[in-house]
Structures are given as C-alpha cells and as structure tokens.
Amino acid sequence: MAKILVVDDEPSIRKALAFSLSGDGYSVTEADSKPSALERLREQNFDLVITDLFIPIEADGLEILQACKEHQPEAILLMITAHGSIERAVEAVKAGADDFLAKGFTMEELELRLEKLLEQKRLRAENRRLSEDYQRLRGEIEGRYRFEQIIGNSKAVRDLLALLARVVDDRDTTVLLQGESGTGKELVARAIHYNGPRQDKPFVVVNCAALPEHLLESELFGYEKGAFTGALRDKPGKFEVADGGTVFLDEIGDISPKVQVELLRFTQNHTFERVGGNQLITVDIRLIAATNKRLDAEVAQGRFRADLFYRLNVIPIFIPPVRDRQGDLPLLVKHFVEKFRREKNREIRFAPETLARLEKHNWPGNVRELENLVERLVVTAPQTTILPTDLPPEIFGHSEKEAFDSAMSQQSLQEACEEFEKVFLLCHLEKHHWNITEVARVLGERRDTLSRKIKRYGLKAE
Predict the structure, then answer these.
(1) Same domain, 226 and 302
(2) N- or C-end of the chain: fewer Cβ atoms within 10 A?
(3) pLDDT tops 90 at residue 116
C-alpha cells in the first residue's frame, strides 16, 4: 500500500483528496501547513507527496518541496496549481518536483497520474538496485581477476606477472597463452582483459574443442536466416557480441583446417561475413587464444597453419605447471583453504607433514587438480587439521616408498621413529579434540609424559 501525504491549507480540498485516495486503497496522511508537513515527514516515510503550489500559511509549495527533498529525497512530488500559475509550476518541476496538475482536475485524472508517478518511483528504485548490483558485481569481478589472484612467489610466477604487467595496457595485440590443462590460462586471459583498456566491454569465451566444425563457424561468425536447416532467424556470432571487448579462444589448437582459414582471414583486418550472408562486418576486438598443445610442433606436423600460428603468436605467454613452481604449493593451498573455508563455513588447516606430502606429488592436473583436492578435503575431513592419512591414495599411498627410502638414506632409526611418533600423536590429538587426558588414556601413556612429547614436537592446536 502506497503512503501519500496531502498538504493543503484548504480543509475541503484536503479532506476530499484524502477521502477519495483512501477509497482507492492508499494510506493517506494530511497536513495543513509547512510546520505540520515537516512534522509528518519526520515521523514517517512517504511514497508520494501532493502539495498545493501556494500555501499562504507560513510557506508556499516550493518550500514544502525543498523540505521534502531534504528529509525524504526518494518521495515523489506532485504539485497542485491554479490555471494562472503554470509558469510557476514549471519552475517547481525544474526545482525538483516530479509533476504538476492544474486545479479543476477530475479524480480519474489524479488517479492515473498517481499510478504513473508511483510506477516511475518503482522503476527508479529498480534501476538504482540494478546499478548497485552492477557495481557490486563489477567490483567482485575486478577483485577476482586482479593479478594478485595469480598466486605464487616462485621465479616462474614472478616472470609471468612481470610480462603481464607489460602486456595489459596494450589494447589490440593478440596474445597466445600456452600451458598444460589446469594451469589457469583462462584466469590469466580474464586478468589481461579486466585490468586493461577494454575492461568495460564484453569478455567472451569460446571453447573451440567443445564444438564441431560447422557449429564453431556459426558460433564465431553468426549466421543469416535460412543459412541452414534450423536457422529460423539471424543470429550474431561471438565476434559481434564482443565488439569493443575481448574474445578468448580456448583450445585453439583443436580447430579444423576450414575454421583455421576463416580465422586467418578474420585476423587480417577483423572483418568477416556471417554464415549464409554476404555483408562484410567489421568489429573492434582483442584476441586472446590458448592451447595446451605445442602449436609449433602442430605446425611442423602439418596440423596447424603456420600463417595463422604467426598471427596468433604475437605475444606468446607460457603458464608454468605446478611442478615447475618451486615453493608455490603452500601459498596455493592457503589461498584455496581460505576460499573454501568461507564458502563451506568450516575451519580447516593443513598439517606441515601433509603439505610436505603434497609438494612431492607430480600434479598432472595442475592448479585445477589442487583446488579440487582442497575443496574435497575441506568438506570431508573428519577433523579440523588435514593429516597425511586424509590424502587420497594416489598422493598418500604412492609417496610412502619415497618417504621410506628418504628416511632410510637420510635419517637414523631414532629420527624416523620420532617423525612417525609426531604424526601419530597429532592424529590422536585431532581425533580427540586435543583432550590430552583422553589421548593419554587411549594410548596408555602418563599425561605428563604425553605433555612433554607434545611440547618437544612443537604440536599446537589451531
């Protein structure tokens, strides 16, 4: 129910308006002067204020307008004016009133005007909400794709960030990202776009490996109505949709020879024709391509056009695999733990011994494999500290012989036994929520003996 404040010094007009509007389902409050109106505005919020342009008692309608804008800027202002004061009413609209009605109006006219004004208010609120959502989402995107989100302090990552810092300000030059699956090529592509001069324009992703030849061609270039069976209307392609922005061509090494020819033609001057069309279309985009293949080797084998490779390989960027990022794994684990701790609302940490095991793993799936593992452990681990025994067999089991061989060659028997005892105690302490008395009872140890071992091994509850 919309709430309306009616301000008029004439009781008959004020009462008539209040009676009629109440009958239409509005909640109506009356005021006969500026002091009275100000008191009402302080007491409650209104969706709409109707006021006479001339109120001889202490103030006129323009002062009411100013007071309303000060106290309730979101409220709609409708001015009532005599026929001879239209110019003053126009001044009121310029000063901030939303509309005016000349006296002599019918109630039907007033009701239609109120419906229109309240709909405008609703649309303003909706536009404001959408604008706030856009700004919030934009902030999230910019935060998510800052270069700081490329986690690592290894030389390989530092070199990568230094190169990106030089590339990001360029608007047009094509970039070719190369690296194994799961290394974060799309993250890097998005970081280039959202930190560069095209950040306010679209970022469009095309997975070239996911589409057969004829669909990929239509996806990139669009098609005209009737171009093939099922083409019931014109459809713009990804290049048109991304005009002004960036197109990310993922798995570019998997496109067919025919699409390679079409893409080569496009890279020459960014012009193309839709499938089934003959009109030349020009777009302004930046191309970023990515592949997990060695495109130079594909060229040598005759599977990829050399001329297209040279056009794509203007700025080659190699994304290093996890195994070549010495020392980055603990930073990556910490980053993913924080991410999933917030998402899953669960406090989790990785024991040092667990991190040591993870650093020995080959990580064929790279960062994606690591992220998936951390999420799984955050969800399924029985205690708050992730122990080596919580790791999947392909990581924990396969490293046992390596750990044993290391202990045999580098540790004494006593050192190996102490290392085992440290992990053994930590497992039991986590299992019993660091109740030392209970752990001592289960293990058949004296409590003071157990406390000394905990102190000696530096074990702490976190």
Answers:
(1) yes
(2) N
(3) no
Predicted TM-score (pTM) above 0.70 = no
**Greater model confidence, 396 or 223:** 223
> Which pLDDT score, from 0 to 100, does residue 324 have?
92
Question: What is the Cα–Cα distance from 215 to 222, expressed in whole angstroms?
Answer: 10
- Three-class secondary structure assignment of 220-266: HHEECCCCCCCCCCCEECHHHHCCCCEEEEECHHHCCHHHHHHHHHH
Measured distance CA(268)–CA(311) in Å, rounded: 8
Bridge partner list, 76: 48
3-class DSSP state for residue 99?
A: strand
Q: Six-digit token pair at 420?
A: 């085992």
Q: How far apart are CA 440 and CA 427, in angstroms?
A: 13
Is residue 81 assigned to a domain?
Answer: yes
8 Å CB contact between 48 and 118:
yes
Instruction: Tell me the CA distances in angstroms from 243 to 137, 192, 365, one per residue in order.
Output: 21, 17, 34
What is the average pLDDT score of the chain?
Answer: 85
Q: Which of 233, 239, 261, 143 is nearest to 191 (CA)?
A: 143
CATH number at residue 333: 1.10.8.60
Whether 253 and 329 map to the same domain: the answer is: no
Kindly state the average pLDDT of the residues 96-122. 83
**Strand 99-102 with 76-81, pairing:** parallel
Q: First CA to last CA across the chain, in angstroms?
A: 53
Q: Is the same domain home to 183 and 258?
A: yes
Over residues 154-176, the pLDDT tens digits come to: 999 999 999 999 999 999 999 99
Domain that holds residue 226: 148-320
Alpha-carbon span 206 to 201, nearest angstrom: 16
The secondary structure of 135-193 as a DSSP string is HHHHHHHHHHTSGGGS---SHHHHHHHHHHHHHTT-SS--EEEE--TTS-HHHHHHHHH
Which pLDDT does position 412 carry in this prediction? 67
Confidence of residue 304 (pLDDT cuts 50, 70, 90): very high
Number of domains in the chain: 3
Classify strands 235-236 and 222-223 as parallel, antiparallel or unpaired: antiparallel
pLDDT digits (tens, 9 = 90+) for 184-231: 999 999 999 999 999 999 999 999 999 998 899 999 999 998 888 888
CA atoms within 13 A on the CB side of 5: 27
* 263 neighbors 221 (Cβ within 8 angstroms): no
Q: What is the pLDDT of residue 133?
A: 63
Is the residue at 141 inside a domain?
no
Closest C-alpha among 2, 121, 112, 99 to residue 51: 99
Residues 115, 70, single domain; the answer is yes
For residue 81, pLDDT over 80 is answered with: no
